[in-house]
Amino acid sequence: MSKNYYRTDFIDELVETNNETEYFTQQIRNYNSIKTNHILLKKNHKSIGKPIGDYFSISFNSTHEKNQREDLENVIIKNLHFLYNKFNITNDSKVLVVGMGNQHITPDALGPQV
Predict the structure, then answer these.
(1) Which burial class, exposed, middle or buried, applies to 14 when counting CB atoms under 10 A from its CB (0-12, 13-18, 19+)?
(2) Residue 57 in 3-state DSSP?
């Protein structure tokens, strides 16, 4: 293994700019206390090591207050609508949505293929 190899399950830990390259585009948005990061990987690159596709991360600190929960719900709905439209998902389609990770458990504990 190369000494420069960096292992992570999250593409946004590998892509640290808010711009476009020949390999990806990235859009970081803030909705009140919620941050979204949409990365469209257009081309494979060994330093990224992920399949081509859309990657969304939604980060937030708390859902203790009703307004924070409602904001989070709206952000999730907005991102799901984007994907439904992009991939022509219908009411008959099957979709898997996974939510993982918090400050007490790392998502990579489940393995790199999850």
Answers:
(1) middle
(2) strand
The three-state secondary structure class of 56 is strand
| Range 76-87 average pLDDT | 90
Of all helices (H) and strands (E), which one includes residue 90? none
pLDDT band, residue 16 (cuts 50/70/90): low
- Per-residue HEC secondary structure of 1-55 comes to CCCCCCCCCCHHHCCCCCCECCCEEEEEEEECCEEEEEEEECCCCCCCCCCCEEE
CB 19 within 8 A of CB 28: no
79-113 burial, b if ≥16 CB within 10 A, otherwise e?
beeeeeeeeeeeeeeeeeeeeebeeeeeeeeeeee
Contact present, 98 and 56 (Cβ < 8 Å):
no
